[in-house]
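Students often ask why inverse folding is considered easier than folding. One informal answer: many sequences map to the same fold, so there is more than one right answer. In these notes we will look at a single instance of the problem. The structure comes first.
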């Protein structure tokens, strides 16, 4: 009954199928949109002025500056795609993370906080506890 169609069971290898696109059928109609760029963090050259030394990648100032660049990118994306709710959620999470980092810097050294905020241009008033 199935002998004619089951050549793989008879020891004969089937030809390998060509790799399929994730949206093979939809691409003909123009409905599929492939992601062109993966989410990456901004290059350190963008935030070099916030580094305390040449290899500084993890200080609160650098982290806050990197988050601010990502927030700017997401804000620009949301100006075009205003119903991208997953992006809105990610933006809110990044804003919360930046707020927590700024609160940490404020608690450690208020002068450092005010310098950072003025250089980034992100606050008009101090963070309340």
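Output (designed amino acids):
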């Amino acid at each position: 009954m199935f002998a004619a169609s089951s050549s793989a069971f008879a020891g004969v290898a089937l030809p390998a199928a060509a790799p399929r696109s994730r949206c093979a059928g939809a691409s003909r109609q123009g409905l599929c949109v492939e992601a062109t760029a993966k989410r990456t963090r901004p290059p350190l050259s963008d935030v070099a002025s916030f580094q305390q030394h040449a290899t500084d990648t993890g200080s609160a100032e650098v982290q806050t500056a990197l988050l601010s660049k990502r927030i700017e990118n997401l804000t620009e994306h949301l100006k075009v795609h205003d119903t991208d709710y997953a992006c809105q959620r990610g933006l809110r999470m990044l804003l919360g993370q930046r707020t927590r980092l700024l609160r940490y810097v404020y608690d450690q050294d208020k002068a450092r906080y005010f310098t950072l905020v003025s250089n980034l241009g992100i606050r008009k008033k101090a963070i309340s506890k």
